[in-house]
Amino acid sequence: MKRDLVLCGVGGQGILSIAAVVDQAAVAAGFQVKQPEVHGMSQRGGAVHAFVRMSDGEIACDLPPDGAAEAILSVEPLEALRYVNWLAPAGVIVTDLTPVANLKNYPDSDRLYEALYSLPRVIGVDATRLARKAGSPRAQNMVVLGAAAALLPLEPERIEHHIAELFARKGEATVHTNLVAFRMGRTAAALLARLVDAGVVPLHAARVVARLDLGPEPVDGAVLIACMALASCPDAIARIDEAVGATAAMPLDAAALSKLAEPCLSRVATPA
User: Do residues 22 and 152 make contact, with C-beta atoms less than 8 angstroms apart?
Assistant: First the structure.
């Protein structure tokens, strides 16, 4: 078993915190780990990246070869594209979808998402909004880590233990915020996976999930069926806008979601 990860974002987004949690959880799980120093501009706005390598055998080199990383974890969508040469053909990009327009020629969102979703496997979550709901926008890094958790050879409970250890010196409230953010990331990624498995186009699925008022609890039962129905509607975002406005999140109420998705309900099979 081996996992090579690229962690990236811009200064101030907590890339080093993701690396610290994954490193400590992997060591505690008995894996060999290499994590060279973080590279980039430490001030807010500058590009930052790091590598984490973990394996159940010896790791010969600090850096993975080009085209070998199983995942890119990015806290900024354009930064994810900066490192695609490190990604394996079957690798996955996990990224916040909220841009940080820190460049004069930063692309518009349509161009950015078109380029991002031209890649085979992308898990895009609105980590910034979910972090705010969890209690602090600075917890967006833990949302991204949560969205990537299913890709890691580490139990979520082990990762949570090391999140709590990392933030313990900042107090119980900060620990709670970051744990909730991590769980929200897991919830968003799991719902995205169900929608994509049901045939929803990944970018459309990401846009719909980004407009739902997710919490840390898994989405299942009647709410999951209603979310799948809504996501199957090509005009799902317009329907949400009409129901709650262009900036608000749609509550996870099965009846309200089903009513919104009523014309599309016949397209959805009951999930197993």
Answer: yes
Q: Which residues of 76-111 are buried (b: 16+ CB within 10 A; e: fewer)?
A: bbbbbbebbebbeeebbbbbbbbbbebeeeebeeee
The DSSP string of 90-102 is EEEEEEE------
Domains of the chain, first to last: 2-182 (3.40.920.10)
Instruction: Quote the CA–CA distance of 56 and 80 in Å, as a whole number.
Output: 27
What would the pLDDT profile of 195-251 be if each residue is shown by its tens digit? Answer: 999 999 999 999 999 999 999 999 999 999 999 999 999 999 999 999 999 999 999
Tell me the sheet residues that pair with 27.
none
The model carries a pTM of: 0.94
d(CA 142, CA 175): 11
